[in-house]
Amino acid sequence: MRVFAFVACFALLGTFLRPEASLAQPNGTQAVAAAPGVSSAPADLEPTPIPPTFYSLNQLGDHLHAVRWELSIVGAAIVIVGLKDWDWGNTSGFQTIEEGWFSKNTRHGGMDKIGHSFSTYVIADILTDRIRANASNPAGAPITAALVAFGIMGLVETVDGFTGRHRFSREDIVANGVGALFSVFRNSIPGMREKLDWRIMYTPASFERPGITGDNGILPPYERQRYIMALKGSGFETLKDTPLRYAELHVGFDARGFEEKERELGYPIERSFYVGVGLNLNEVLFGTGPNPNFARYRDTLPGWAARKTLEYVQVPYTSVYYENRFSTVRRVGTTFAD
Q1: How large is the average pLDDT for residues 101-107?
Q2: N or C: the chain end with fewer CB closer than 10 Å?
Q3: Where is the signal peptide (predicted)?
């Protein structure tokens, strides 16, 4: 459930901080504007040295300075949510727990592990954008962002170890690493951001069984979440000028029947994969196609905030799925039966 805290935190961040054009040019050199009346440099002068492409501690320091305000906001938001929803105020001795991954005997059927990966990815992805916008040398931005996001989530997990409610989980640390690596992958391979999104959908009550309406807290419970990978037609050159630019291919996962309320209602344990097609709302609202939309506002503050939100959140009723319940376990008393 932590993921919604981070998404909300960055939505708030976007209200105050808008990404500007990067100071560095795509080839790694910096643009220098010629003064009026001054002729350009002779062609035989040495070209401006290109900064080294390998990663260094100097780059790390530059990148951290570029996102110092973002990190302050993130840290404050995490502390507030931790004290309110994660029982951080009730300290105890450091404890660890073996939570497992996706089996029927785990607490959340793996939804918490995907939530950790997704939260780390969201933090790293947005920090990558901010570093590229503000750092004097943005080369290696995905690496810095991934390291910082992994460190933040690792610190959160360490603090959990001092609360009797959650405890420290090695599986969560591994899941955080997966999310950080996915962000590096998506932000380092040319064209991948345009082709692939990882999203969460907070499923409405009509998607769930009777009685599963969620808790009264700020964050949605696991039984109302679904995670989706979306392959976007708009990211492919051959489809950009066709109606297929509005279409997406989806693969999703959720787990049901693991939470206390579901157990009380006697619902079976189920883990499901989904395949389907969806509507690319970013392309519909902000794409450059012939249909009228809000494309001229895409680089305004509201437009940027909306586009980033739609990269991470799947709006219900904008996709259709075929569900494959690959594991169903019926409850018989307090035991399981296949």
Answers
A1: 80
A2: C
A3: 1-24
